[in-house]
Task: structure prediction
Amino acid sequence: MVTTIKREDFCFLVVDDFSTMRRIISGLLRELGFRKILEAEDGQVALRTLELAAESGEPVHFVLSDINMPVMNGFQLLEALRQKPEGTALRQVPVLLVTAEGRKEDIVRAAQLGASGYVVKPFNKDTIGDKIHLVLKNRHVMVA
Result:
């Protein structure tokens, strides 16, 4: 079964401690036609944002998170999400990890923690669009 979500309703959360990087990623998402984009400066703020969005009935559908951040890093955020109760939307939310480092051990750890994908900076609109499309396709989600 394919789940269809309207593009104007599809919500992203961009998590990065550098505001410039959040702006760049948000801009790329806008170029891809997405409009609902939330931002957080670390994993702790992201987790709270995700919880509040879920409680409000307007959940975040996709997370793009940096790995190296203060307070709570991307791995810790991913781990916290995957430890949520079975069957909850937060446990299942796709998380694409974004990093400046392409270290093999980070890629392995991301996979072990349940990351939906991994992308190394710098990247362009096509790269991020392809990664998002692949993750959604594997989850039988279509954005229309």
Helices lie at 19-31, 43-56, 74-82, 89-92, 104-113, 125-138. The two ends are 15 Å apart (CA to CA). Strands lie at 3-5, 11-15, 36-40, 62-66, 95-99, 117-120, 141-143.
